[in-house]
Design goal:
Blueprint lengths: L25 H16 L4 E3 L9 E4 L11 E11 L3 E6 L9 E6 L1 E7 L5 E7 H14 L10 H20 L1
Antiparallel strand pairs: 1-2, 2-3, 3-6, 4-5, 6-7
Bound molecules: ligand GNR and nickel (II) ion.
Length: 172
């Protein structure tokens, strides 16, 4: 397995529209294994392939608590079939927007369809953090970041701080 570099905003590659996977094969499973290792190391609770520079519609996630052991989840070619009218607020972060957090309002529940690690089609109803994280990751596949849900002013402030931090890093 391998830890992959995570792309950070404002890198424009994060704006890519990721493309559907044609075949769930060992190469794709290797990518998902590496994404999970990268996510666990970061650490984060979800990761979209585009965050490691791969423009495929692939998401990995693990929302387990440490005590229960790992519970890796894989979502290939995910679709949102339905979202609830009731909304939920969550203080979101993103590995591609390091050290910035903001409340984002999204549908509280959703029904989704995807292919799993074996390439089997699955449908599932989600709520709570799972629904929030899934929608955050779905956004990545469409080139959208959580900061796009904030006011333009808040977004610009965060992007400016990210650029400044990256400049400091480059000269350190
Ligand atoms: O690690 C992450 N935490 C998180 C918290 C609230 C809502 C969404 C997330 S996803 C994020 C990892 C990430 O950037 N995934 O794309
Ligand atoms: Ni993210």
């Amino acid at each position: 397995m391998a830890i992959l570099p995570i792309i950070e905003a404002p890198d424009q590659s994060l704006r890519t529209l990721s493309q559907p996977v044609e075949k769930v094969d060992d190469d794709l499973r290797r990518l998902m294994d590496n994404m999970l290792e990268t996510m666990y190391t970061a650490p984060g609770i979800g990761l979209a392939a585009i965050q490691v520079g791969v423009p495929k519609r692939v998401i990995v996630m693990d929302l387990s608590h440490d005590e229960d052991g790992p519970a890796p989840r894989h979502f290939i070619n995910p679709e949102i079939l339905w979202t609830s009218e009731d909304l939920a607020n969550y203080n979101e972060g993103c590995l591609s927007v390091p050290e910035h957090y903001a409340d984002v309002e999204r549908p509280a529940q959703c029904r989704v369809r995807y292919l799993d690690y074996e390439g089997e089609i699955r449908e599932e109803e989600m709520d709570g953090l799972l629904a929030t994280c899934f929608q955050h990751e779905m956004d990545h596949l469409n080139g959208i970041l959580f900061i796009d849900h904030l006011s333009s002013l808040k977004r610009q402030i965060i992007l400016k701080k990210l650029r400044k931090a990256q400049k400091a890093e480059a000269t350190a």
